[in-house]
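The aim of this short unit is practical: by the end, you should be able to scan a pair of folded records and say something sensible about each. We start with the first protein, listed as its amino acid sequence and then its structure tokens.
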Amino acid sequence: MLKRVVLNRRRPDLSLAQFGTHWRDAHGPLLAGIPDYHDFVSRYLQDHVGATAPFGRAFDYDGITEIWQKRADALERSFATTAAYREHVMPDELRFADRGGAIAFFSRETAGWGVPRGAKLIVLVSRDGGVSDADFAAALGGWFNTLAQLDGVAGAVLDTILAETIVSLDGGEPAERFTFMLSVWCVAEACDAVAASVGRHVAVAPFHHPASVVAGYFEEVEFFDERPTDAVLTTKAPA
């Protein structure tokens, strides 16, 4: 199942708190209440910016939108091509969001386990040009599986980003070209230790370039989840 991910920017005249309030209390319910939106989307959630992670480059966007696509032709036809989007959603986006500098891409959830609960740590990783796709994926896969052995990790999901779908919403050249997105949920008292472990992994090859890793904590706000049971990744941790 394809997922569309947007790294959002707020309007420059709004504070982060003002942006987050409108996004959560007005924009999210607006989308969830449009019947046509549910023809295209099976799950919609917002990741609101929280604390800075103790490793990598600080997350310098204003939130992340995760949108699970329902249609097989999502790359060719999305809700953004509909009259409902143009008439109802776009005018509201202009009230709080700035397309300048915002980035969007499609991804696939390639591995996952556990039950999302607790604090959410998101890590965006870019492949160094000197590392092959196969070596990078193998190293990241091994790292991902070690998360299951850490006390306090409630769940994790690994997204593979489709490189050809990365776009800047203002039509310019994307400022970032990430390769993978990792989401980790940890219980509060264990988050420092979990983040320290993740930080140790990204400090060595092939993740050792500081600019290749962006990380932060987020508050996840889900508006609906209509995915069929067979589309939800396993809840069993890897052995």
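Turning to the second protein, read its sequence before its tokens, just as you did above.
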Amino acid sequence: MRFRDLCAIGAFCAATGLPTGAGALTVTLEECNEGADFIRNAAFSRDNGAKADEFLRRLEDDLVLIQAVPPALRWFVRDEDDEAMLRVAAISVFTEPRGPHDHHREFLAGCRATVSAAAPAPGTPPVASLPPGR
């Protein structure tokens, strides 16, 4: 996938606020911190000469490889929404360059807000589940 295509996908998702899939974000607050670190490091890489096409191609290659790992064992990218969040933020590192710490802060705030919005309301009892086959 070319950089221009990635930018178009990222811009569409960001502009519409629509996720790329039907799933819900599955990251934890700790993973938000780790994802924000990844995005900050992407901005440092950009500042040190990394080219957008190469960086984003490598990210896409990694995202394809991650699909071979069962979702429960993955870091961050367990579903299409997680993947879209990381991809859109990585694209913005190159299309809307700001300082690494600014990208980190923006990603972290957005991720935490999404995790908080997906959390059950206080006082909501957990849903009981039976083991498989019961």
